[in-house]
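Sequence, please.
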């Protein structure tokens, strides 16, 4: 059966997303992401690029594979893991001229070296206009933010035979439970669930 996509379009925090993932019975997968305007340095050329920090389920949620190389493996979703990135087809073209030996090269992001482990196919562009992706959990400042700092968004895929109304009702219940458990950070915080197409193109 065809799956329907849903996305949380309101900023949240990683702790909430983890709680949603652990408690939800209506979503098959749930991933977190955080936008990042990164300083990208390669061969002495510096530029600012739209990047995304993404959690472990991000690429598998879309069912997409790298065009060259691979996406992230579990040990890379850790502050102790290697510093790695996956780049877009567009960045591969513009920065590297579609060179065949890009996988394995090292670039600088905000002055820190990262190894390129994969290149995504041209048709994969989510979030829109992203040039590269980094494991969210490998960036300590992003992975350890306090629950009250809402800089993360989430995207999920609904289980088969589940309706959007059921997802919204469940997330309302989870939000109320989190409000009771964490009143200092979650009081008055609601969760908005909307189809991904509506989020991207408007309704």
């Amino acid at each position: 059966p065809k799956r329907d996509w849903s996305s949380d379009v309101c900023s949240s925090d990683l702790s909430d997303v983890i709680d949603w993932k652990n408690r939800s019975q209506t979503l098959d997968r749930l991933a977190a992401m955080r936008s990042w305007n990164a300083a990208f340095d390669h061969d002495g050329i510096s530029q600012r690029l739209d990047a995304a920090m993404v959690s472990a389920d991000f690429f598998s949620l879309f069912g997409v594979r790298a065009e060259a190389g691979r996406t992230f493996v579990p040990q890379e979703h850790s502050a102790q893991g290697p510093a790695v990135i996956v780049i877009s087809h567009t960045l591969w073209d513009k920065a590297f001229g579609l060179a065949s030996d890009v996988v394995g090269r090292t670039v600088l992001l905000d002055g820190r070296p990262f190894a390129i482990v994969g290149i995504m196919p041209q048709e994969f562009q989510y979030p829109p206009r992203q040039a590269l992706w980094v494991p969210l959990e490998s960036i300590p400042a992003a992975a350890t933010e306090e629950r009250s700092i809402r800089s993360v968004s989430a995207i999920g895929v609904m289980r088969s035979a589940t309706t959007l109304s059921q997802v919204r009702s469940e997330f309302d219940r989870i939000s109320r439970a989190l409000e009771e458990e964490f009143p200092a950070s979650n009081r008055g915080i609601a969760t908005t669930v909307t189809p991904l197409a509506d989020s991207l193109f408007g309704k």
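Confidence is low (pLDDT under 50) at residues 1-10.
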